[in-house]
Amino acid sequence: MAERLLLLPEHWISPETLDNLLGPATALVRILREHAEVDVFRWPSVHGGPTAPPTWQASVELVREALTPGCHVLASPGSVSLALLALSEPDAAARSFIALEFAIPDRTLEVLGISGIAAVSAAGYRTQDVRTLVVSEVQLGEWALPRSDGITGSPNEQAAALAGDVLDYSYLDDYLRSWESLDLLAESPHLSLPCLLVEPVPEVSQFPEGEAIDLFLRFVPTAQVRRTEIWGLRHRRPGGGEEVGHIVVEFLDSLRASSRLLTVLVTDIVDSTVQALEMGDQRWARMLADHHAIVRRQLKAHGGNEVDNAGDGFLATFESPARAVRCAAAIVEGVRPLGIEVRAGVHVGECEVMGEKVGGVAVHAGARVATSAGPGEVLVSQSVRDLVAGSDLQFDSGRTLTLRGLPGEWQLYPLATE
Fold this sequence. Notes:
Number of strands: 14
Structural class: alpha/beta
Distance between the termini: 39 Å
């Protein structure tokens, strides 16, 4: 099945605009569709979009709801800040994040002490009305209509007319007022998933040297950065869409390499040998079949990927540590009516991916965490507990253990039970 890529366009661009206009963004989408299943998000400012208040907070929530386990997220400049906040949620299950420039909200610019660039800020745009904003953006993007549309006027006028027909200008104006008030430093998003930032070279960028990149790296310290002169906010050359498309595809291909940051869940049945002897072969086989069905149902519900099972236990991976912990808790509770107890361990780390199999130190650590858990207990490593901080997941006091075959002491935390 093709990988899913959620594309977050500007709030004044509809899916139909990308499908019916010719320009760099359309060329970019065409290339991406050759490598992934591309879903162009429809904002509330576009007719037919979801109903939501015209605030940046509501937009963040809409993005979060649109995420699916393992999807890639690609954001246009004005949507980058929303994606940063949505992907910072502990439950966010995206595989990677790609930012095509970083349009920084006005309030954030003020806090950073950056001035003199009103031309690229929301307030600068809105020295004229929002309709002028749409026309200028369409012109900036070098849009042109397909020859068969038959709409009169210059290519830019035709494109602006088609884009404007689907917009709620009042909503868009209110939204921009909210977006420009966003202080990203106060919200302090933090991402640990693979990220790519495509930024213009200094002579093209409207920001002081490195400011946008430095701010992005403050929130995503491990992000890759690609600078190009053909994708600047005020400088888009013919062929820019194709080149950026190839940059993005190269990044996505790199994620299919052998090493990936994954959350590992390991479960096993407590005292399985004793249980098997007491039940007898036939009853044990029936119980195992029921156990497997429950585990697989919960893995599917929580976005987990079954890697292996050893008869009485499972190894699974997740993109989201919070989902892995919730899945573990659901499995523990789900199998109790079968008259058995399972224990579960959750750890996050770099895994070696070999086709459908995973290995490496992180997998071994997950297995050791699981064997350290008690009956009916979900035990997580400190890295997992730290990554889900801010969620509704609660943990009891940690305990310090040594894990066989692994260096040093480990802090492990049991999931709190009601």
